[in-house]
User: Which sequence fits this backbone?
């Protein structure tokens, strides 16, 4: 007689899922739960005690004009850096895909920036964009005071956008290039024989076929620009001048770790989390409709 | 056979236990010291730790740099919450109020007397000791690296305008800056307006003019203290700085712009700066060859009776929850630091000032201040001891002061970028700073500063 170990499907499923669930719980739900608890209390930094304040932390944050400033500039930062990095990456990928001479070389070179740690690229850009010593000193030589990220908020914003986008150009480029190369050559050759030009072929054939990639990168880039920018801000501007680069994620870091206001930072993290969830849902509801999956 | 075996094994066990017991008796008691200094200063601290370890066999201090002051405090808080805190930690001046309310320390006065060390606390310069003491005068942390702000001035440039002394008043400084500009110097004075410069521009200025930064005697008398700098001479000071900046007499120099104040002065590009005496060594090491310069006390407005300036730097906190043995080691280490010879070693290699009168006298009698490159550093002592500390010049003891300094930087930048007027900017600083203070007071509801 054949021996067979039988499990009910339900219990086996749970058994196999346990390690994964444990990991998710430890590294996501537990800290998130902790953050929610902290956001509803006032935490003494040394752990001496906490006072329950309900939604007071959220109320005081939402009543603070500096916080709304940081929300506004975070959205501006996300919009500009995402379109810049994706736009440049798209053009570069399209050119590389056309098998220009040395395209292999370009593809390797363009991927590199993504491998460089954010603080390192921030240091490089800090030098390049320094008004008196770097590349931009040429601009200031001819038009004194034109480039002044130390006092001019818009200039400071431009420096962090440049450093951040530069890094994500490489990231987007990899995906765009892969998407272009997955398009069957025969489609493009057929279109070429029918007499359509490069631009026409791009808009009518290539672009629709890479919309899933564009959508994916849009979600990733926007999320990252809200979450991954703090290293660059810390090194290049530290949120200044006069709060003009104090992005939401940097404000959380500086209030929480430098200012030791754990509760206020926790409340801001919850708001940022909700904002990203809403943005992602919005993208899936409204933008994904225009995506053509093959 | 079995007897023989027993005998052997007993002997072996004896040898083994002896071998275990011997090093255990001789092994020094280890304890941790975390600090915030890095780079050149980190090496000096490590040398000091090695000197302590070599000076005796009972204790061994393990010294670890955390990179900077912020990180030292953050890492210590994280370690404390996890029960893995070091025995001693270096905390910067602005962390003092937070530390005092933490309930996480062992008062150094108590530590030293309980471990049999007699330290004459009156030997500490009053401006330094009172910064780290309770309102009743009990010292909670151990003064370590102390500094104050000074005016650095280029003697060569001043010679060109016929002057041999630094300006003593701001009125005189304004005339000197105009004369320097007239003599072809592009940058008579350099300042920076980030959060860090709150120290020299707001805190030191207020102290030497005996003007409060906050109510309740700058926070010493209660957590309900609120900022008052929008109603003091500080407003006039910022107004003047801004007008001198607009007239091209003052330039903003920061690392973000390619050259910080100290570099701008050392390279001869700018003729005056206000910075810590801790930079005295750096200027000496990096200055343009042959440049003549000196330091002086910060200027005051004419008609002001000058008061003592504030101590900056950091102190050493002994944390609670360690073993009695570790506390013995910590006390021995602090006693070692207190020794005038260690003070001489420390001040020679860093630029920080000695914190005790006996240390200062020892250095003076050994001829330390008589020759370059150390000549001039005694001005810092003169500035710190210009008067007996008043209730306002004891120090600034405000909660989450790091955030208030950040707000200072924000508003100064807004003022200098013409986003707001001087009064508006300082009003904003007071309003936002008070929100930070209210939050701190609510977090420590029912508690009082010791």
Assistant:
């Amino acid at each position: 007689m054949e021996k067979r170990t039988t499990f009910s499907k339900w219990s086996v499923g749970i058994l196999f899922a346990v390690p994964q669930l444990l990991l998710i719980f430890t590294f996501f739900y537990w800290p998130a739960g902790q953050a929610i608890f902290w956001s509803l209390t006032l935490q003494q930094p040394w752990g001496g005690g906490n006072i329950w304040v309900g939604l007071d932390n959220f109320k005081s944050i939402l009543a603070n004009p500096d916080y709304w400033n940081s929300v506004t500039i975070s959205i501006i930062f996300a919009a500009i850096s995402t379109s810049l990095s994706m736009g440049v990456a798209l053009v570069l990928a399209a050119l590389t895909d056309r098998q220009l001479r040395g395209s292999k070389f370009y593809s390797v070179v363009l991927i590199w920036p993504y491998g460089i740690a954010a603080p390192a690229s921030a240091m490089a850009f800090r030098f390049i964009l320094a008004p008196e010593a770097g590349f931009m000193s040429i601009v200031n030589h001819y038009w004194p005071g034109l480039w002044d990220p130390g006092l001019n908020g818009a200039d400071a914003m431009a420096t962090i956008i440049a450093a951040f986008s530069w890094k994500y150009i490489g990231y987007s480029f990899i995906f765009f290039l892969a998407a272009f190369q997955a398009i069957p050559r025969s489609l493009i050759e057929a279109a070429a024989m029918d007499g359509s030009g490069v631009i026409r072929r791009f808009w009518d054939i290539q672009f629709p076929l890479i919309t899933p990639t564009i959508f994916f990168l849009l979600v990733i880039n926007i999320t990252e620009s809200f979450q991954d920018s703090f290293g660059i801000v810390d090194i290049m501007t530290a949120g200044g001048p006069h709060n003009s680069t104090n992005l939401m994620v940097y404000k959380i870091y500086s209030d929480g770790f430098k200012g030791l206001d754990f509760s206020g930072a926790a409340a801001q993290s919850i708001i940022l989390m909700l904002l990203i969830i809403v943005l992602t849902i919005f993208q899936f509801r409204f933008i994904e409709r225009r995506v053509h999956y093959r | 056979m079995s007897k023989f075996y027993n005998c052997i094994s007993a002997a072996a066990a004896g040898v083994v236990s002896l071998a275990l017991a011997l090093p255990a008796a001789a092994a020094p008691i280890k304890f941790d010291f975390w600090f915030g200094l890095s780079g050149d200063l980190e090496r000096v601290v490590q040398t000091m730790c090695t000197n302590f370890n070599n000076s005796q066999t009972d204790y061994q201090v393990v010294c670890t740099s955390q990179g900077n002051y912020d990180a030292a405090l953050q890492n210590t808080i994280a370690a404390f919450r996890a029960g893995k805190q070091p025995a001693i930690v270096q905390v910067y001046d602005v962390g003092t109020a937070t530390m005092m309310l933490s309930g996480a320390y062992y008062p150094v006065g108590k530590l030293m007397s309980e471990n049999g060390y007699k330290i004459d606390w009156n030997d500490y310069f009053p401006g330094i000791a009172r910064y780290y003491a309770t309102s009743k005068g009990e010292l909670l942390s151990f003064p370590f690296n102390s500094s104050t702000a000074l005016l650095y001035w280029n003697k060569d440039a001043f010679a060109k305008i016929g002057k041999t002394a630094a300006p003593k008043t701001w009125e005189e400084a304004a005339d000197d800056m105009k004369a320097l500009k007239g003599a072809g110097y592009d940058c008579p004075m350099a300042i920076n307006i980030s959060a860090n410069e709150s120290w020299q521009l707001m805190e030191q200025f207020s102290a030497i003019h005996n003007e409060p930064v906050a109510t309740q005697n700058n926070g010493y008398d209660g957590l309900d203290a609120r900022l008052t700098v929008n109603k003091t001479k500080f407003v006039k000071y910022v107004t003047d700085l801004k007008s001198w900046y607009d007239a091209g007499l003052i330039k903003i120099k920061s690392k973000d712009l390619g050259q910080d104040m100290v570099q701008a002065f050392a390279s001869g590009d700018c003729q005056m700066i206000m910075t810590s005496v801790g930079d005295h060594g750096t200027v000496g090491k990096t200055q343009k060859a042959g440049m003549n310069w000196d330091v002086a006390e910060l200027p005051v407005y004419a008609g002001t009776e000058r008061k003592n300036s504030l101590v900056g730097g950091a102190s050493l906190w002994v944390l609670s929850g360690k073993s009695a043995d570790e506390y013995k080691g910590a006390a021995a280490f602090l006693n070692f630091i207190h020794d005038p010879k260690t003070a001489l070693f420390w001040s020679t290699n860093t630029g920080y000032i000695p914190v005790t009168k006996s240390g200062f006298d020892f250095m003076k009698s050994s001829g330390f201040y008589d020759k370059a490159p150390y000549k001039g550093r005694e001005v810092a002592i003169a500035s710190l001891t210009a008067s007996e500390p008043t209730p306002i010049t004891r120090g600034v003891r405000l909660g989450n002061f790091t955030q208030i300094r950040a707000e200072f930087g924000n508003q100064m930048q807004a003022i200098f970028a013409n986003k707001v007027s001087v009064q508006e900017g300082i009003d904003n600083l007071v309003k936002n700073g008070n929100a930070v203070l209210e939050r701190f007071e609510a977090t420590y509801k029912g508690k009082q500063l010791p």
Observations:
- The first strand of chain B starts at residue 29 and ends at 35.
- The interface with chain A takes residues 70, 73-74, 77, 80-81, 98, 101-104, 194, 252, 254, 256-259, 400, 402-403, 406, 409-411, 413-414, 416-417, 419, 432, 435-436, 439, 442-445 of chain B (CB under 8 Å).
